[in-house]
Each structure stands twice: as C-alpha cells, then as structure tokens.
Amino acid sequence: MENDIEKILISALDIQEMCQKLGDTISKDYDGKRPVLVGLLKGALPFMSDLLKCITIYAEADYMRIKSYAGTKSDTINLTKDLELDVKDRHIIIVDDIIDTGKTILFVKTLLEQRGAASVEVCCLLSKPEERLVDIDAKYVGGFVPNEFVVGYGLDYNELYRNLPYIGVLKKELYN
Ligand code: IMP
Ligand code: MG
C-alpha cells in the first residue's frame, strides 16, 4: 500500500498538531455553547476522532453519510445516513476531511440551516482553495493542499488508503 504513495504531504505528527490547534480554538470559541460536531462519514472519521479528544468543553457528536465521489471525480451528492440528533437551535460544527469544490459542505450547511440550527460553522482538516466552485469556506482549517489528489487519514481512492496515518499524494499512474 505504501508503495502507491508518491510523496507524503502532511505527517502524522503534523496532523496531531493541527488537531490540537483546531481543538483549542473551538474550545475557546464555543465555551458555554455545547456545540454539536457533525462528522461526515466516512472520510472525516479519523479526524473527528482526534479532534474530539482535543476539545475540552462540553460537546456532542453525531454523524451523517454523504456520498459524492466516484474515483477522483466529484459526482452528485446523496445523503445516505442522517443524523440522530435534532439540530434545531443548536450550534453546529460540520467536520470533514477536506473541502474541495465546496459542494458537499454547502449541501450539508444548507440542510442544517433549513432544520433550524442556531449557527453552522465548518471545520475541515484540509482545504484545496484553488478548486472551489461554490461560494463557501471553512472557518476552521488545519492546512492547505495544492490541487493534487491526496489520500490517507480517512481520505480514500475507491475506498482504499483511508488507513494510512499521514496524508500523501497518490501516484498518478494509479488513477490516470
Ligand atoms: P467537494 O464537495 O468537492 O468539496 O468534495 C468534498 C469531498 O470530496 C471530501 O469530503 C472528500 O471525501 C472528497 N475529496 C475531495 N478531494 C479529495 C482528495 O484529494 N482525495 C480524496 N478525497 C477527496
Ligand atoms: Mg468525504
């Protein structure tokens, strides 16, 4: 599996530092608000798990499954597993692995606002700012990556590589 990686962009240690910084900021910003972290399955799972442990205030967690990808291309967006919590009047933080075109996050944010959330912010481990197609951004971002297909730490290519502990660039010959 590791032979399929062209280069490591963000090491496991760097990821932990990003989670710590984001957790500190969220803990300060949401003190007394008991936010609900909404993790988007499956990609956000490792990040959600580490981020939660870096948050020091009362916070709840719930999950949604959004399917939007086939290979390396963003496709139509489908909600395949919904939340269990009622988000009405709650402060929501959407947690995802990466914001790319922004379509997934816009879809989820709009949905949660329609359901009456008190506020909806976005926390992504990574952002590909050059790729944005819709007018949305994440308030909390761990780091930026160039316009390359990355895998690891939850991010997959056809369901593989989610279990790498770092973020790496996949060798192009594997998907071209
Ligand atoms: P968006 O809707 O285009 O912003 O795409 C967001 C989703 O696409 C993320 O939740 C990821 O699951 C997936 N995605 C975007 N870029 C990459 C990548 O470089 N590698 C793996 N998955 C990606
Ligand atoms: Mg995803």
Topology:
Layout: E1 5-10, H1 12-29, E2 36-41, H2 45-53, E3 60-70, E4 73-81, E5 91-99, H3 103-114, E6 119-127, E7 140-144, E8 150-151, E9 167-170
Parallel strand pairs: 2-3, 2-5, 5-6, 6-7
Antiparallel strand pairs: 1-9, 3-4, 8-9
Helix pairs in contact: 1-2
Bound molecules: inosinic acid and magnesium ion.
Describe the structure.
- The chain is an alpha/beta fold and 176 residues long.
- It is 22% helix and 35% strand.
- The chain has helices at residues 12-29, 45-53, 103-114; strands at 5-10, 36-41, 60-70, 73-81, 91-99, 119-127, 140-144, 150-151, 167-170.
- The strands form 2 sheets. A 6-stranded mixed sheet has the order 4-3-2-5-6-7, with helices on both faces. It has a 3-stranded antiparallel sheet with strand order 1-9-8, with helices on one face.
- Helix 1 (12-29) packs across helix 2.
- The chain is globular.
- It starts with a strand and ends in a 6-residue tail after the last strand.
- The mean pLDDT is 94.
- The structure holds inosinic acid and magnesium ion (MG).
Order of helices and strands: EHEHEEEHEEEE
- Major β-sheet strand ordering: 4-3-2-5-6-7
Main pleated-sheet profile: 6 strands, mixed
Helical content stands at 10-25%
List cofactors, ions and other ligands: inosinic acid, magnesium ion
The beta-strand count equals 9
Measured by DSSP, the beta-strand proportion falls in 25-35%
How large, in whole angstroms, is the Cα Rg? 16 Å
